[in-house]
Amino acid sequence: xxxxxxxVNQVLKIIMAAAGGVLILALAGTGERKLxxxxxxxxxxxxxxxxxxxxxxxxRQSYPRAAWEEYKSSYGENGRGQEEGWSRALAVxxxxxxxxIRFLTECRExxxxxxxxxxxxxxxxxxxxxxxxxxxxLFGGDEETGADKADMAGVQPVGQEAGGVLPDDTQTxxxxxxxxxxxxxxxxxxxxxxxxxxxxxxxxLPLTGTSYVLEQLADYDFLMKHFYSVHxxxxxxxxxxxxxxLLGEDLxxxxxxxxxxILIYHTHSQETFADYGPDNPQATVVGIGNYLTELLExxxxxVIHDTRTFDIMDGELNRSKAxxxxxxxxxxxxxxxxxxxxVLDVHRDGVREDLHMVSEVNGKSMAPIMFFNxxxxxxxxxxxxxxxxxxxQNLAFSLQMQLDAAAYFPGYTRKIYLKGLRYNLHxxxxxxxxxxxxxxxxxxxxxxxxxxxxxxxxxxxxxxxx
Length: 466
Fold this sequence. Notes:
Strand order of the largest sheet: 1-12-9-13-6-2-3
Radius of gyration: 25 Å
Order of helices and strands: HHHHHHHHHHEHEHEEEHEEEEEEHEEHH
Number of helices: 16
Structural class: alpha/beta
Distance between the termini: 76 Å
Helix content: 40-55%
Largest sheet: 7 strands, mixed
């Protein structure tokens, strides 16, 4: 008789499955009438996730082959699909319990027709890979940070100087006039390019913040401490976070108002701000996307703003597959408009309800922004079914904007957030997921934040703007 051994994590998953089932049953009873539509949907989705996650862990522990079936059914041969659940995987796995079907599918290779000498072992190895990866991303798949402290998110308190180090000869002086500012900018540019070519925008804007020298940024520990928050679902090694290489990446484009160049869209178009309601229906990420589009068009770019909803299906909110639906939608847009070179997915973060992050920039209160990079890898290694050939350019795009923000808009940005999945950042080399404030910010604060963002984008896309 086979003995089943479960560790603490697996016991917890079994409890999750049971709790999820109880919640689903409770929803079908009298408790459902006490919840409004939004609360009911939230409980139902939570219960479903608990049930599927817990049941999936039990199946993986008992039958490693089941994890391989999940991988094949969810991702197939082309690597498409990112959020398929266990229901389809279990259906395929149960179908293949038929010995004849299993024999025909496992003992034949598509190209040669030759039998695989040990198909079950290959499946077992693949299942181990899937299990290892899923352990990191099971509870960290979305792009929200869930931040509970402003300093953890990298936000500088209003009225305090931005963190960082200025070399002695590039300290700013509030009493300097235009001539003094120009001298500071030239000195900063010279320092940044010492040793190797590095991105630096010499802008007409006053240098009010911190300008970093390349020698500082070449220090991996300094770079990661000052500019990045790394989620436990991923890793960022020294070979990838090479400041000289990232800052040396030329991301500039020629402005062409006749052909689409920038695509703005919203994977989670239903994300709203604190004052959203019947009297303020524009207080959504789509609303701030409209304003960002206007600002970029005023600078001479041709912008497409895709306002379609990818997180509502059949009239109900469904965030779990939004990235899949968005991938199909924006891929079609890019195929129809091959001149597009920049893709921006604009969100707002989800944080603790009593955390109100706000920055004072150019005399306006605004929601701080956060650049977000999907690394397509866990601490176990690359996620092979989610490749991103433009990951280095995406990292360069966010870091260059982050450094310009530190120099010209101190306190405006949070640390760049790194997470394990891909988040559809693989379609163009200038792709960015941008979190604008959080649900606790007002629409005006979020809208104000689009003005520095448009400047930062223009600085990196047109570095000769000065």
